[in-house]
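Tutorial, part two.
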Amino acid sequence: DEDFRKKLQKVYTNFLELIEGIIERGVKSGEFKKLDVRITALSIMVNIESINWLTLFEIHGVSAREYMQTITDFILAGIMKKH
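Running the prediction step on this input gives:
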């Protein structure tokens, strides 16, 4: 349904813009590396969205909590500046 698609697209666009804003602030403050903000935000969003996939298909041996912790560590290691 076209109406549903537009509403869902708006939700994802708003979420993407929120993530982009966080990344932009982190880059400006010097906490994050200078990265392509859009690609980094999309990567983060896809990893967050994959929790739905993980839960929906009941991947055995991987809990959503373990997945989130690992992905969070992975993402932060990739975007944080080394001090």
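The first helix runs from residue 2 to 29. In part three we will examine how such features are distributed along the chain.
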